[in-house]
Amino acid sequence: MKIALFPGSFDPITIAHVDILKRALPLFDKIVVGIGLNSSKQNFLSAEKREEMVKTIFSGNENVEVQLYEGLTVDFCRKINAKYMVRGIRSASDFEYERAIAQINQTMMPEVETILLLSKPEYSAISSTIVRDILRNKGDVSPFVPKEVIEFL
Length: 153
Hints:
The protein is of the alpha/beta class. The chain has six helices and five strands. It has helices at residues 15-24, 47-57, 73-80, 92-108, 128-136, 147-150, and strands at residues 3-8, 30-37, 64-70, 84-89, 113-118. It has a five-stranded parallel beta sheet with strand order 3-2-1-4-5, with helices on both faces. The termini are far apart. The mean pLDDT is 95.
């Protein structure tokens, strides 16, 4: 079984995340959306709310599983038996960052391959960071998040 991990904080999940995941689905038997818990990071939404949002969006898809995890992403890959990691790329700076992480992960766990999917041009400016800033300033985030997420925000 080809299992991939799509790791991230998803704080909150955006339409760009959903697009990457939907485009990756035909490549794997199962994709685990791994919501990473980072104690040094100040999250906008609780881990439980982020998990519930992602589960709601993909409730009709049996090939998508959602799990919270702490620690190294490669250790979580081992735990769930994932041999692939899926990441989205919006820009050249994203590529440089993801390349470095993928190379470190490859050294730590050679049997895991990182699959980088390019963002569609219309989603390249969308990030959770920008969505959080809009939310903090009481703006309308509906163009940037899945409709299922609005009720959680």
